[in-house]
Amino acid sequence: MTHPIDDGALRRKSRNRPVTRREYKLLLAAAPLRADEGHAELRALLWSAIGRAGVSPGAVDAQDDTRERTTWYLDTPDRAFRAHDLSLRIRAEDGDGEAHQVTLRARSTDRVLAATADLRTPLKGRRRFEEEILPWAGGAGSVFAQTARVSVPAPFAPLDVTGAAALFPMLERLAPRADRTLSVVRGFVARERTTHLCRLELADGFAARCWASAWSPVAGGPPVTLELAFDVDLATDDGGLERLPVAAALGARALFGALCDQLDERGWLDRRTRTRTDFAYERARAPRR
Do 153 and 109 form a contact (C-beta atoms < 8 A)? Predict the structure, then answer.
């Protein structure tokens, strides 16, 4: 497999990137998807996990704001983007009918490969380099993700790779010439409802934001998957490396472990699929006509 690195990366010292954020992600199985819109069961589980992790109740700020949007992925018939550890995601935010948020993500368990993916765009956008903590057999593991996001006029509906490459030129090099058409992956468009649950202080200046985000078919119906997650923004030191206090790292690890244990105890943790991108590619179903 060819990795989508910058053309010059093989001829020069690979440029690493500081991690700007850690995201701790858990996909849930069917049982808690029946929870009401306030996610009462998940809130109770989260408060219990926070207690098990040893976080002081005074450091927790409960939240209850919600946002909704529509999400889908584009790829070629033979999944050329997926084969190169890439995903092309489009989001339409509620209340913003004039723009689509288009994100190209390079994901890899190898930090260097994720950091050197060529996600340059001629448009003004936002770049991030994140570490995702996911449940693995026997514990947790890291996956690194570089993302580039741009806002474009709606609708963004390129018919082929060349149309998408207008935003991210590197895509032009990846897809085979035989069939470069683009379509919605598995025909699945998700109605995404995200509820922020709480903010908790892990160390001075370092807080975790916790949320639950459910995907339902845009055509209607109950949720088909739900992500319970929290993230922590990292600082960057004078040498250009990320910085996270040991106390914050230990607190985040304890909370993630407590959440995994409690979800396992209830049989709620989805061990078949680790990320929503994987769900979209492997298990999502298009609506029946």
Answer: no
Domain ranges of the chain: 15-282
Instruction: Give every CB contact of residue 13 below 8 A, 6+ residues apart in sequence.
Output: none
Q: b/e per residue, 9-44, with b = 16+ CB within 10 A?
A: beeeeeeebebbebbbbbbbbeebbebeeebeebbe
What the block records as the tokens of 256 is: 């993630």
Q: Which residues pair with 135 in a beta bridge?
A: 140
pLDDT tens for residues 222-241?
Answer: 889 999 999 999 998 887 88
DSSP-assigned beta bridge partners for residue 207: 201
Q: What is the pLDDT of residues 5-45, one digit of tens each?
A: 655 554 445 567 899 999 999 999 765 666 555 688 889 99
Collapse the DSSP code of 240 into the 3-class scheme (helix H, G, I; strand E, B; otherwise coil) and give the result.
Answer: coil
